Amino acid sequence: MRENLAMHAAQPLRRAPDLAGRFGAHVVQALIDEVTLAPKPGLVDIRSRGAHRDLDWSLMCVSALALQPTFVELAHAGIDIEPMRALRERIGAIGRDGEARMLDATGGVNTHRGAIWALGLLVTAAAREPSELDPRVVASRAGSIARVQDRHAPAITGNKGDQACLDYNVGGARGQARAGFPHVVDIALPELMRSRARGDSETAARLNALLAVMATLDDTCVLARGGRDALAEMQHGARCVLERGGAAALAGRRELKTLDRRLVELHVSPGGAADLLAAALFLDRLQGEADRPSNA
């Protein structure tokens, strides 16, 4: 499945519709790369359900693939719609349709609601100005879109993440997006680059990027399930892994296993951090797009 998706994403670009298709494939590949990454503490990966009972790797992949038309449509909107309010309201409608598509594909299980929001904004922003794909610029552009009010969005969603924002006075996914994804561009991507530069494997580098986000993020998925005590344990545990050399070091891997066991015991899963890792992997993948000749 991953090989077929990668082959699809490698098809050459010649027109704007192909650009949208390619960007949509980049998003889906980032989602599959994120869920496949292992061992992730408390999260679904290719070896484990993590702290979840209703999710597994196969279902997450089914969901990601089902969402590819949604992300392609979001990229098209970024290309085609110039007025900012019209764009914001159009992608809001596309995102809500995508959520329905996700739930239909998974039998009602929420697999990627947060990812539709975060990566939907980023793919729209990237497609809006494909000649400038620097991660910080794309994230800032996405933040500008997120700050526009969608008059058609429901005032109350009933989502656990939104309720956690109210209960614990944190910004959540909306705050992260409106600020230009600081945990992606200031934390996840720099850690990914540092880990690669010192010779860590790609798996270790991605795990370290995830842990760097977990160490500081007010993850509403964790808050909704375990409150502030669970959040504090997660953040402390992630810092311990990094302080002991990260996922590439023996001591770091031991701490990572300890953190994984503890999050499973607490029945908490840092889904917000996972979404931001996927966002970082998407922006990282776009750098290959930026290096591609304009006539390729």
Automatic annotation (TrEMBL):
Taxonomic superkingdom: Bacteria
Taxonomic source organism: Caballeronia jiangsuensis
InterPro entries named in the record: CitG, TriPribosyl-deP-CoA_syn
Entry function: Involved in the formation of 2-(5''-phosphoribosyl)-3'-dephosphocoenzyme-A, the prosthetic group of the acyl-carrier protein of the malonate decarboxylase.
Record family assignment: Belongs to the CitG/MdcB family.
Principal EC category: transferase
UniProt name for this protein: Probable 2-(5''-triphosphoribosyl)-3'-dephosphocoenzyme-A synthase
Catalytic activity: 3'-dephospho-CoA + ATP = 2'-(5''-triphospho-alpha-D-ribosyl)-3'-dephospho-CoA + adenine
GO molecular function annotations of the record: glycosyltransferase activity; triphosphoribosyl-dephospho-CoA synthase activity
Keywords of the record: ATP-binding, Glycosyltransferase, Nucleotide-binding, Transferase
